[in-house]
Design a protein that fits this description.
This protein is an alpha/beta fold and 587 residues long. It is built from 22 helices and 20 strands. α1 packs parallel to α6. Bound molecules: thiamine diphosphate.
């Protein structure tokens, strides 16, 4: 039912709307273009539901809302000041776009009515149209031109952000409209009637054909990349693989997707694509965009891609075709797909599983299938054994190997109700921990650095009070873009355990400079110039302490990690405060 708002100003109405749709938190960095909204949130809304979360950079505000959306399964809002705040926010908006995370970005502009502008600043900070700055990587941008039009613009953006395929939206609020006194009450629509549409299910005929292909296949392989956007997909995914005796390859850790394959599953062959993809005659790709990474191998020095398998019949289930944009080529390489199915892959899985099970009630290849499953399981077990042995062998290295660090962390957290808010310690968390995909939120999506800490803070905010232990495996280079996120962590008492995987370098680039030097026959030792983060090495423990965060380090032996982590864990669990342990790892 529509209600009438007691709001007195345009920006009060925005608070009513935020509250009506259930947005609990608003991350912000202040700015005069939304002073009206800021006042309304504090003095009209009482700074409760939504509560302000103060960040020191707009990139942090948006990345925090990004992490929150993934952990909570619903959007929070970030408010960014006019042109300049939006420019700072744009990197994080791009990440959220690539990650298909529903982030509700509210912005503001100096009055579009030029007679209402203050000299200088309101002019240089006003654009026509501000949303064009991020239009290529939001699902929708809008700028209501009257107070009466605000509810419609707001609710459309709210709905669009959450409709699959999800993504960030940008709603720009004119400063003059925010500050406009309301002459008469503005009716507030019944927001329950503006929810997102149900996601698309697959065509049953296509599912039946996919089941036929998979059941008749000599060696079917299942690839997943961002399927973990819906944690409920993991159950049917595993059952499908078991029925087919098909290896499961989770591409998430290689490509910043959302994990969906449990690490202990006997058919898990993630990280060993090359061992199975080449033999496949049918490939089932679930929510996969990086087809070339999935089906090919890239030569680091020449950039040449060699396809591991050109003949396999490809069945692809995703909503990618509904998420196309022309500007950034996030759609990636066009590869032949024999059976493309436009549907939410997680929703398609139960139907596909049922169709496969139906066909397998009369399976002439049951014995062969069983033998294949056993072969894959044996290989899976060997790989896990090798990883454990590597971590054990590397334990004495100083500074630490990432394998040994991941093993030490696991010893401390394994009995906790943990979630991994960011990072994987170069994949070692997946290899050594009891890896349950629903406990992990994947990467930035857009590979834009400056994501880890703020997104992890969003995850910690989403889980605050739930008893879950939020862990952030933090790279140093990524952190240095957004290190002031520690202020937000301490100020809002966000219980996050950050462990630095501090290799004191931009490791990925060091590898590239190594590759180029070798290919060109130039001095490899120069690969560290303009790359290493040392001389002086930032002291992350002191930096974090300076923001009011419990911190220890630098630590460079495996033996010292456990005790420091236990002390940090106590701070996080018992005091509900953030803590950091800075561990130096091998470049
Ligand atoms: C905003 C942004 N700037 C630069 C890059 C290029 N880049 C990709 S990986 C990387 C190094 C990252 O270093 P760090 O976060 O310490 O992780 P490491 O590779 O050492 O594990 C850089 C600079 C990027 N992806 N995003």
């Amino acid at each position: 039912m529509a209600t009438t708002t007691p709001a007195r100003y345009g920006s009060d109405l925005v608070v009513d709307l935020l509250r009506a749709v259930g947005i609990e938190h608003v991350a912000l960095n202040p700015g005069a273009t939304y002073r009206g909204l800021h006042d309304s949130l504090v003095n009209y809304g009482g700074n409760r539901a939504p509560e302000l979360i103060l960040t020191t950079h707009e990139e942090i505000a948006v990345a925090l809302a990004h992490g929150y959306a993934k952990a909570k399964g619903r959007p929070m809002a970030a408010i960014v000041h006019d042109i300049v705040g939006l420019q700072h926010a744009s990197m994080a908006i791009f990440n959220a776009f690539c990650d298909r995370a529903p982030v509700f970005v509210l912005g503001a502009t100096g009055p579009m009515d030029a007679t209402r502008r203050r000299p200088w600043i309101d002019w240089i900070h006003t654009a026509l149209v501000q949303g064009t700055q991020v239009r290529d990587y939001v699902k929708l941008d809008d700028q209501p031109a009257s107070v009466a039009a605000i509810p419609e613009g707001f609710l459309r953006a709210w709905r669009v952000a959450q409709t699959e395929p999800q993504g960030p939206v940008y709603l720009c609020l004119d400063a003059a409209l925010q500050e406009q006194p309301l002459e008469r009450p503005v009716p507030l629509p019944d927001v329950a009637r503006f929810g997102p549409a149900t996601p698309p299910h697959p065509d049953p005929r296509a599912i039946d054909e996919a089941a036929r292909r998979l059941v008749e296949a000599r060696f079917p392989v299942i690839l997943a990349e961002s399927l973990g956007r819906r944690p409920q997909a993991t159950g049917p995914l595993c059952r499908l693989a078991e029925r087919l005796a098909a290896p499961l390859v989770d591409l998430a850790s290689e490509s910043q997707g959302r994990p969906s394959v449990p690490g202990h599953h006997p058919l898990d062959m993630s990280g060993a694509r090359h061992e199975v993809v080449g033999d496949a005659d049918v490939v089932l790709a679930l929510d996969v965009t990086s087809f070339l990474s999935a089906l090919g191998e890239t030569d680091r020095s020449t950039r040449e891609v060699r396809l591991l398998n050109e003949g396999a019949h490809v069945i692809a289930i995703s909503l990618d075709d509904y998420a196309l944009r022309s500007w950034a080529h996030t759609f990636q390489s066009l590869i032949p797909v024999d059976l493309p199915i436009a549907a939410d892959a997680a929703l398609a899985l139960p139907a596909l599983l049922a169709a496969v099970e139906d066909r397998l009630t009369r399976d002439p290849h049951a014995a062969e299938r069983r033998a294949r499953g056993e072969r894959i399981a044996a290989r899976h077990a060997t790989r896990r054994e090798e990883w454990r042995a590597t971590a054990h062998l590397e334990r004495s290295l100083r500074p630490l190997a990432t394998s040994a660090l991941a093993a030490e962390i696991w010893e401390v957290i394994k009995n906790e109700d943990w979630v991994l808010a960011n990072g994987t310690a170069k994949g070692w968390a997946r290899r050594l921990w009891d890896w349950q995909p629903e406990r992990s939120y994947g990467g930035s999506g857009g590979a834009g650095l400056g994501y880890g800490l703020p997104a992890a803070l969003g995850v910690a905010l989403a889980h605050r009070g739930s008893g879950k232990l939020c862990v952030n495996l933090q790279a140093d280079g990524d952190l240095l873009y957004v290190v002031s996120g520690f202020y937000t962590a301490a100020h809002h008492r966000l219980p996050l355990l950050t462990v630095m995987c501090n290799n004191r370098t931009y490791g990925n680039d060091e590898e590239h400079q190594d590759t180029v030097a070798k290919a060109r026959g130039r001095p490899v030792e120069n690969k560290v110039i303009g790359i290493r983060i040392d001389d002086p090495a930032p002291d992350f423990a002191r930096i974090a302490q300076g923001f009011g965060v419990h911190a220890e380090g630098p630590i460079d032996t495996a033996d010292a990690v456990g005790p420091a982590l236990r002390r940090a864990l106590k701070v996080v669990k018992e005091e509900g405060r953030p803590a950091l342990v800075d561990v130096i790892t091998r470049p």
